[in-house]
Design goal:
Length: 264
Amino acid sequence: MKIDNSIAAVVTGGASGLGRASAEALAAAGARVAIFDVNEAGGEEVAKAIGGIFCKVDITSEDSVVAGFEKARAAHGQERILVHCAVVTGGGKTVSFDKETGRYKRNPTEMIARSAEGIFTASYRIASHGAVGMANSEPLNDDGERGCIVFTSSAASQDGQIGQVAYGGGKGAVNSMVLPMARDLMDVGIRVNAILPGIFATPPMLGVKDKAPAIFEGLEASVPFPKRLGNPPEFGSLVLELARNGYFNGQCLRLDGAIRMPPK
């Protein structure tokens, strides 16, 4: 897909971190970008900086998502690139020791359900609304391409650590959705891929650097090469390639400096 100012894009979670890097990369390439996020201040700031539009969207709400797409399309037209970075999740070990009672307790099922809704279900919600809009639009090129969808999964989907049952399981479900969705959408010319980032220098991780520098240094040292956390623009660069390269389809790509973390 050729990216220029005729192309509209939607990026969820675009107010910060990997979503912001994706929005900035797409805007720099010429796309008109709409940012979906619950963070109004951050989203408005990024949208202003890149010449885009901010839509306050809760990815766990069907009505909120529908309203976000309506606002984005009214401003920019039908999006042809959809990058889904937003996530709602929880954590905790399957069972953990409770010092107050002296017994082990289980992580509530509700925590898993919250992550399933905020990761897998939300991913389908965002992607399917984007896909139906793309499918009802004219092809962009001789291949018949109408658009592309990029999910943000995680290295934790294949390399989950202690306490990541909810998160790793949810992201694993996203991986499993990529190929069947790509096949579902092949007749309407929509490609579907996922990026599995490792440890990136996003705001939460930079918070670890400030509060626990020794832990942060250990995380950097755990990456084979380069021995550092990923920079968000490196994620944005891969988003651009997945959008531009029309032969990328049905893929789950790790972007992690070759990290394979043992349980800790």
